[in-house]
Amino acid sequence: MASHRLALIGGGLALAGALSAVGLVAAQPAPVPPAEEAPPVDVPTPAPLAIPAIPPEDLAPAPRPTAVVAAKPTAAPARRARYDVAVIRAIDKVTAESIRFEARVGQPVRFKGLIFTVKACERSAPDEAFDDSIAYLTVESQPRPAPGKPLLAPRQVYRGWMYASSPGVHPLEHPVYDAWLMLCRAATPAPGRVTPPAAPAAKAAPPPPPAPAATPTPPVAPVTPPAVVRPPVRSTPPAAATPVAPPPAPDPIDEPPPAEDPIG
Predict the structure, then answer these.
(1) How many CB atoms lie within 10 A of CB 35?
(2) What is the pTM of this model?
(3) What is the pLDDT of residues 107-129, one digit of tens each?
(4) Maximum CA extent, the chain
(5) 3-state SS string over 154-189?
(6) What pLDDT digit, counting tens, does each position of 54-94 carry?
(7) Residue 119: Cβ within 10 Å count
């Protein structure tokens, strides 16, 4: 009985809702049709704009610059300093024997079964990022000669540049030995030998002082000597010749007597 009442109440509510919906739809106004669009108004076409004439000087190509900009001088790159001794560290991986030795440029050095020959040893230039030692060397593998056995020919196992700061850049790859560059330096003089100091350079004689400038002599006007007035020379008649007396006769000279004959 209660369920029948509930069903009647629900049906009444549904009917009331439907009626209210119908009333709402009926209350809405009818849609208004859109108004017709007015015809376009004739707009006059504007006159084209007058473009001003371009003067001929603006159309002519620009003149070439007369001033020549001087090229900036490029400084030559700094050269690396070269040394004659390379310091190398070598290790035997089997016996764990390690040794540090010096190798002169161009002189082979043996460490067990390896022969090291340094071709060049350099230090970084001042304009490089950091200081480093770089060496170009060759390494040959040759066992030591055994008694009664022939000497085997050397076999090259390494050739290239080694970097002291980065041993892993171009390392020596060998199953028994390992080696890397430590630094490059100049050779030290042998003990007991004293290198005499270099003689000082002779000082150049100072240049002679410059000669004093000659003082120009003012021109002297020539002096005309005064005219000498001489009195007239009177002519004197020659004197009459005076007779000369003859010289007196000379006195006779006494002659010595003849010598006597001793025989008579």
Answers:
(1) 6
(2) 0.45
(3) 999 999 999 999 999 999 888 88
(4) 254
(5) CEEEEEEEEECCCCCCCCCCCCCEEEEEEEEECCCC
(6) 888 777 787 777 777 777 777 777 888 899 999 999 999 99
(7) 13
